């Protein structure tokens, strides 16, 4: 089983939970959209930093073009909102953990593109519609498929921990707007 297949199969429950939670935000309402962005801003910058510290650039040379921390920050500021406190990312030790964490972040871009359709045109949407490198998802998936980490379970554990961070951040923001 490829690493991509293992990640997809063994994190499907986490992915469904994150989709359900973030699907409860009404992105056509400015307050919900702000809360949605704040939830993501609690985790994306710290995960990106953890990936950089762990050496993602040696696995994905175009990594610097993939980051979205500045995009989410710009959207939040344009909405006149404050950046939230970051949740601490898990330690990413080894190539497998890097792939697992990157799998979640890169995959969130696909979901973001679909969610962007719900955001009114007058609201900033850089985070959900990043430009990034051309064919970035295909390149990522090809690199993931070509990887052969020694411990695929570490990739799954890292991916699950990233999904858990998104769930925690989403809950915090939903509670704040409730």
TrEMBL record:
Gene3D superfamilies: Heme oxygenase-like (1.20.910.10)
Stored InterPro entries: Haem_Oase-like_multi-hlx
Domain of life of the organism encoding this protein: Bacteria
Name of this chain's protein: Biliverdin-producing heme oxygenase
Organism: Rhizobium hidalgonense
């Amino acid at each position: 089983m490829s690493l991509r297949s293992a990640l997809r199969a063994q994190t499907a429950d986490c992915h469904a939970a994150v989709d359900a939670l973030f699907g409860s935000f009404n992105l056509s309402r400015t307050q919900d959209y702000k809360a949605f962005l704040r939830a993501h801003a609690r985790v994306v910058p710290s995960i990106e930093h953890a990936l950089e510290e762990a050496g993602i650039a040696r696995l994905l040379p175009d990594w610097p073009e993939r980051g979205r921390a500045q995009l989410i920050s710009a959207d939040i500021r344009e909405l006149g909102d404050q950046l939230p406190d970051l949740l601490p990312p898990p330690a990413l030790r080894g190539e497998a953990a890097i792939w697992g964490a990157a799998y979640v972040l890169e995959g969130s871009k696909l979901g973001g593109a679909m969610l962007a359709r719900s955001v009114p045109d007058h609201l900033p949407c850089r985070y959900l519609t990043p430009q990034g490198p051309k064919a970035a998802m295909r390149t990522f998936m090809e690199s993931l498929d070509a990887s052969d980490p020694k411990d695929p379970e570490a990739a799954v554990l890292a991916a699950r921990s990233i999904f858990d961070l998104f769930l925690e951040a989403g809950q915090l923001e939903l509670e704040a707007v409730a």
